[in-house]
Design goal:
The structure holds 2 protein chains of 2 kinds. Chain A is built from 4 helices and 6 strands. Chain A is α+β, with helices and mostly antiparallel strands. In chain A, the strands form 2 sheets. Chain A has a 4-stranded antiparallel sheet. In chain A, strands 1-5 form a two-stranded antiparallel ribbon. In chain B, the strands form 3 sheets. In chain B, strands 8, 9, 10, 11, 12, 13, 16, 17 and 18 form a 9-stranded mixed sheet that branches. In chain B, strands 3-1-2-4-7-6-5 form a 7-stranded mixed sheet, with helices on both faces. The termini of chain B are far apart. Classes of the chains: A alpha+beta, B alpha+beta.
């Protein structure tokens, strides 16, 4: 069981929250992301300061999952967020206020991060190369 | 030499030379362009903004546009090490509060904006070596950087409408922004832009920036009457076809419209065009990649875009093969939204 909490990563990462979806962006990677359904719910709890264990308990209570499955899915979800550089471990946990879990009343779906990488092509860089300096300027011939 | 000294020397040199001046308004923002180079330089930089040209008068920003090939003007020695330039060409040693400095090696173009003195310079080694698509949205980096702290939002989107109301059309490349916009040329809806527009997030007015429509060549099959009007036929098929709407349909171009909705075009292949509600998140997902990439905007720009989205209703514009239905569907929506306003209800927002 883990008491580790997480927070939104710093420079280059931002999120915008809608009624049923969160859009995230990691500009240095050129990716943007969508969180919906259980991923959206876990994200909200994560930002409130819930640790991994609390997230799994939330998922279990809301969808009737057994604890082991809930913990496994939660950890995989956190791993995805970490891999994409969207969250970092929080050194001191904020005041976590786990909400009373209400059954969702809809079928369970594994929390997932939808990754969009089509921005990468648009951000392709043209680094300075073949520098044959002309009065100090790297004019490309 | 410091970056500040470099800037002062460059702008002093610009001021000391004879320029051809032209005046433009981008929404409420007046800009003077001072050209130092051959006629081709002025044509390249003003064709897409010809509809925004004004009489001579005071301006809030002065931009010098310099072409070395035809004027012989070279820049001062750089005051920085080229290793200090990031992957986007931004030159780090210039304090970002005051300056925007960028060098694009692919096009040999240097841009410098000094926010304190409201001056900018765009220097290029040879305007004839610039890619043709640069002609379609000149000055965009300078305008964006100059107005980045204001309520002006630059978006990869089109817009059409009338003086009483219009729609923003956005979506990923190939979604049908240009097709939907050009389909409106035969209607009462005026053209604001089909690819890149400016929106005030407080007044919700959309402002025209560029009067050029850009189309994939195969899209032209749907507009046989437009094909003879294409400007850059020599660029086929490597770059998109450019149609300068102001040259051929000046009465169809408007400089601003009040926005009433955001539409996400999507071609269905069916005959009819219909409307379905969209979510704000769907709009943001459509706007984010190209808008941020074109402007090299920071992630915080997301919040600014969201501020706009949350003030307007959002819809999918499911476009069909009968192009005449596209403006009809938009006009019907605008009429319905106007009715909502008249009876005193707030517009439904995303």
């Amino acid at each position: 069981m883990s008491s580790q909490t997480y927070k939104l990563a710093g420079a280059g990462v931002a999120s915008e929250h809608f009624e049923e979806e969160v859009i995230l962006i990691n500009l240095p990677r050129g990716n943007y992301y969508s969180l919906r359904f259980t991923g959206f719910e876990l994200w909200n709890q994560l930002l409130k300061g819930a640790n991994v264990t609390q997230l799994a308990v939330f998922l279990s209570g809301r969808y009737g999952l057994d604890e082991a499955s809930a913990l496994q899915d939660t950890q995989q979800f956190i791993d995805q967020l970490l891999t994409e550089g969207l969250v970092v471990p929080a050194e001191s946990a904020p005041e976590a206020a786990p909400e009373e879990t209400v059954p969702a009343g809809v079928p369970y779906s594994v929390p997932a991060l939808e990754v969009y990488s089509d921005m990468q092509d648009l951000l392709l860089l043209d680094p300075v190369h073949d520098v044959d300096s002309e009065q100090g300027w790297p004019i490309k011939k | 030499m410091s970056c500040e000294q470099f800037s002062d020397e460059l702008f002093a040199d610009c001021r000391s030379r004879k320029s051809v001046k032209r005046y433009f308004s981008f929404g409420p923002h007046r800009v003077t362009l001072c050209f130092q180079g051959a006629e081709g330089l002025r044509t390249f930089f003003t064709k897409a903004i010809a509809h925004l040209e004004q009489e001579a008068g005071p301006a809030a920003l002065t931009v010098w546009v310099l072409d070395r090939a035809s004027s012989g003007i070279m820049l001062p020695q750089p005051a920085w090490d080229w290793n200090q330039m990031d992957g986007y060409g931004t030159i780090a040693p210039f304090p970002t509060e005051r300056y925007y400095a960028n060098f694009q090696q692919a096009s040999n173009t240097f841009t410098l904006l000094d926010r304190n003195t409201s001056q900018a310079v765009i220097w290029m080694n040879d305007v004839n070596a610039l890619p043709e698509w640069e002609r379609s949205f000149p000055l965009r980096s300078v305008l964006y950087e100059w107005l980045r702290e204001s309520s002006s939002l630059f978006l990869h989107a089109g817009a059409v409408g009338t003086d009483t109301g219009g729609v923003l059309l956005t979506g990923r490349g190939g979604s049908g922004k240009s097709t939907s916009t050009l389909a409106c040329l035969g209607s009462d809806l005026k053209y604001i832009g089909d690819d890149f527009v400016m929106v005030n997030t407080e007044s919700l007015d959309a402002y025209s920036l560029y009067n050029v429509a850009k189309l994939e060549w195969d899209q032209l099959l749907r507009f046989p009457t437009l094909e003879p009007l294409i400007y850059n036929t020599s660029a086929r098929p490597h770059e998109k076809a450019q149609l300068f709407v102001w040259d051929h349909y000046p009465d169809k171009v408007s400089q601003s419209i009040p926005l009433k909705a955001i539409l996400l075009p999507r071609f269905t292949g069916l005959t009819d065009t219909t409307i379905e509600p969209a979510t704000g998140a769907e709009v943001l997902r459509a706007l984010v990649p190209s808008t941020l990439a074109l402007l090299k905007a920071p992630p915080a720009y997301l919040t600014k875009i969201r501020m706009l989205i949350q003030q307007l209703p959002c819809y999918w514009l499911l476009t069909g093969t009968d192009l005449g239905q596209i403006p009809q569907t938009i006009q019907k929506l605008l009429t319905e939204l106007q009715t909502v306003e008249i009876v005193g209800e707030a517009l439904p927002a995303c």
